[in-house]
Design brief:
The protein is α+β, with helices and mostly antiparallel strands. The two termini are 16 Å apart. Helices cover 46% and strands 17% of the residues.
Length: 105
């Protein structure tokens, strides 16, 4: 899937006119584990919002996402860098999303 995505979009990725992401969903977590993760993420968001009261909710989420991008974790044998979503939800579709930022080339 990675090769197909990069092959089809390589020129636009290099031009920085498009970004390519993989999303992984954690299906093996229990509901209690998900609740703990969501609560910790919400607490971090509230702390950041209190530290920057002039920011809107959207800008606070963006700030958290930028911080997570800077601290992206390397996971897997291909040395992929993954960013954990700043405000995951417990819904059935996307309980714990993790985003992989594909390289520029």
């Amino acid at each position: 899937m990675r090769a197909a995505c990069l092959g089809a979009s390589a020129r636009r990725i290099k031009e920085r006119s498009v970004d390519a992401l993989f999303v992984r969903i954690s299906k093996e977590m229990t509901i209690d584990q998900k609740r703990v993760l969501v609560a910790k993420s919400r607490q971090e968001f509230e702390e950041r919002a209190a530290a920057y009261p002039d920011l809107t909710e959207s800008k606070t989420k963006l700030l958290l996402l930028r911080e997570r991008c800077e601290a992206a974790a390397t996971i897997g044998k291909v040395t992929d860098r993954w960013v954990f979503h700043p405000l995951p939800t417990i819904d059935k579709v996307r309980p714990v999303p993790v985003i992989h930022i594909l390289p520029d080339g």
